[in-house]
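hiii, so i know i said id send this last week but things got crazy w the move. better late than never?? heres the sequnce for the chain we talked about at the cafe, plus the structure i predicted for it. fair warning i was half asleep when i ran it
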Amino acid sequence: MTELDALLSLADFEQRWMAEADRPIAQYVAGGAGSDGVVAANTAAFGEVWLQPRGLHDGPHALDTSVTLLGHTLAMPLLLAPTSPQRLVHPDAELATARAAVRHGLLSIVSTDSHFPYADIAGAAPGRTWFQLFPYRSRTDVEATLAYAEECGASAIVVTVDASFAARRLTTLRAGYRLPPGVDYGTLRTLGILRGDPPVSGRHEKLPVTWADLEWIRGRTRLPLLVKGVLRPADVRRCVDLGMDATIVSNHGGRQLDGVVPALFALRSVVEAVPDDHPVLLDGGVRSGTDLAKAIALGARAVCIGRPYLWGLGLGGRQGVERVLALLRAEFDDALLQLGIDTVDKLDDTFVTTARRLTSVAAG
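okay and structure toks below
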C-alpha cells in the first residue's frame, strides 16, 4: 500500500496537501475572492440537497456510468476543469493531468494559461482535451489562439466569460503569493502573447468578453463551443441563440466575486431555461461521488472538478490525479447502486430533495 492508497476521500487529499505544500501556493489554490465565502458556499450547497434512494427496484443489472458529451464517451460524467498553471504544484503539470484523465476514460480542459504549450499537452492525450480560451490583447490574438488550438487537436473550445477582470483575492494577498521562479506560461509564450518574464502576480490583462465577441468567436471556429461562467437563465438562453453547443454553470470556483450564488443553486434554473439537447455542465464545489450524483440528478450532464485533482497532482503527480479520479469513480458507483439505478440517464430529480421541498410536502 502506498501513501496515496491511505487517503480515502478528497478531504484526506486536501488536508494532506495543504499541510505539505508551500503556504503561499496552498493559499493561492485554496483561496477565493474577498472573504472566501463563495468557496465554502459552493461546497456547502451540496449539503442542502439530499438523496432519496429507491429501496426496491427491478433487480440487479450491470452498472454503466458512461455518458456521451459532444461526441465523446466519458467513463463517468466528469471532466477536469481548466486550472493554471499546474506547474505551481508539480513539475509534470498539465501533462500528468491530461494523461491521468485519459487513463480513466475522461477529458481534461486545458487553460490558455497552461505551463506547458498546449501542443505538448494535446499530444500527450490525443483527441481527449478541450481548449479553454481566455481572450488576450486583441481579436487578432484570439483568432491566432483559436487556430493554434485547432491545429493542436482540440476537440472543443471553452470560452471563460466570468474572469475578465482581476479579482480581489485577499487570502492570496495575505499569503504573499508571487509566481515562483521557473513557472512559465507555455501556450502564451508560443503564441507570442507573453514576452519577457511572466508577471509575478500571475495575472495577464484580458479583453472583457462581450456578446459581440462571443458571436464573433462562434464564427471563427467549427469546433463545439462551450461558455463557462454563466449563472443566469436569460444569459444561457442568449448563448443558445448565438449557437453555443453547451454551457458550464460556474462562479469560477468562488475566485472572482464574493457573495455570488453557489453554482449548484444556479444549476436548476439554467437547465430549465435551455432545450433538452443543450448540455449543461456544473463547475464548483464537488467533493465526492455523492456530490456528483446530486448534480446529475439536478440536471447537469456532467461536472467539472478543479482543486481536488490539484491536491492529487501536488501529492503524487499523475498517480495522485489518478487516485483522486479512482476515488470519485468508486463513490459514484456506490451512489448509483445505493440509489437503486444502473445507468446515469436514470438519475433524475426524483432521487433528490431539499429541506424546502420536504417542508412544502409536510405543509400540504
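btw The first helix runs from residue 10 to 20. thought thatd interest u
miss u guys!!
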